[in-house]
Amino acid sequence: MRVDQFDFLLPADRIPDRPVNPRDSARLLHVHEAGLSDLSVRDLPGLLRDGDVLVFNDTRVIPARLYGKRGQSDIEFLLHRPESAHVWHALARPAKRLKPGDAVTFSDTFSAEILGRNDDGSVRIRFDLDPEALSAALEEHGHMPLPPYMGREDDAQDREDYQTIYASHDGAVAAPTAGLHFTDDLMDALSAKGIETSFLTLHVGLGTFQPMKVDDTDDHVMHREWAQVSQSVSEQLTKAKADGRRIVAVGTTSLRTLESAAETDGEIRPFAEETDLFIVPGYRFKAVDALMTNFHLPKSTLFMLVSAFAGTARMKAAYDHAIKSGYRFYSYGDACLLDCDQLP
């Protein structure tokens, strides 16, 4: 399938570098069988059905961007995948002169050693700290890994803004952005409506938000991300499916985790492993009935996913409407609810 089938023009002024405040005042485009409706995220409880189960990704974004010194030279790292308790894979800038054994200093008490380079240009870097001490060092010296399209450095406000209110498991280097819209008040309103909630974990990696670099989807190598569905969540969601109730994924990361854990009959099994599930039109969904998600990059795996879920023509029309109507795109942007009884 050609990647250019998923291209569209997006004006630069549709990409915000700050979220709206409060979070749940963001706009929500409801994509449904009858057409499109312009609403607010605060309207979500009224759009859902009694018995629906909202499934959230509770990963926590770590301050994964580090600025250090190799001798007298400045160097920047973006951690993106742990190999072990001490070793991480990272993007480095500049990377060409890095050699195994090189020491990089981030502070008087925080340093690392270069172990080698990977075929994709990233490096392996070892920290001489135990996991708890490394987590504390990242919190003190690291920076939030804002996507480059925001065009600015992170600041103290991003420590709150680029994190869901229910984040609880460290490991993501990008936010599960659909979840950024939820507030305590909205969660209370959902509970009052009788909407169940459920939490799984997928540690979002850098590949999630990158545009495709090939011409055909068959040539794309999907990034791998660690995900987990607990036994209790497996039982909750499998029962909901058996009862004929809907599973509503909050974000594409929740959807990919659920589909990775689902059997062909819709049963959602416990799951704790890496997933590289790549969803394009033609995929048959086993677990998820509706999806809340942000607006995504042209020619991205995520726009392919939403096109698979709701139909390419419908999603191109929805995105065209969103662009013309001033919706905000990407991480700090607005959201849409894909709520179509008849999936492609």
Rg, alpha carbons: 20 Å
Q: Specify the biggest β-sheet.
A: 9 strands, mixed
Q: Name the shape in a single word.
A: globular
What is the helix content?
10-25%
What proportion of the residues form beta strands (DSSP E)?
A: 25-35%
CATH superfamily descriptor of the largest domain:
QueA-like
Q: What is the CATH topology assignment of the largest domain?
A: QueA-like
- Sketch the topology as an H/E string, one letter per element: EEHEEEEEEEEHHEHEEHEHEEHHE
Question: What characteristics describe this protein?
Answer:
344 residues, 2 domains, 6-stranded antiparallel sheet, QueA-like, alpha/beta, 8 helices, Thrombin, subunit H, 9-stranded mixed sheet
Structure commentary:
The protein is an alpha/beta fold. 21% of the residues lie in helices and 28% in strands. The strands form three sheets. It has a nine-stranded mixed beta sheet with strand order 2-1-17-16-14-3-12-13-15. Strands 5-6-7-10-9-8 form a six-stranded antiparallel beta sheet, with helices on one face. Strands 4-11 form a two-stranded parallel sheet. A hairpin with a 4-residue loop joins β6 and β7 (87-93). The protein starts with 26 loop residues before the first strand and ends in a 5-residue tail after the last strand.
In short:
By secondary structure, this protein is an alpha/beta fold.
Architecture blueprint of SSEs:
Elements: E1 27-32, E2 35-40, H1 44-47, E3 53-57, E4 59-61, E5 65-70, E6 73-82, E7 87-93, E8 103-107, E9 110-117, E10 123-127, H2 131-141, H3 158-161, E11 169-172, H4 184-192, E12 196-202, E13 225-229, H5 231-242, E14 247-250, H6 252-261, E15 271-275, E16 290-294, H7 301-310, H8 312-324, E17 335-339
Parallel strand pairs: 1-17, 3-12, 3-14, 4-11, 14-16
Antiparallel strand pairs: 1-2, 5-6, 6-7, 7-10, 8-9, 9-10, 12-13, 13-15, 16-17
Helix pairs in contact: 7-8
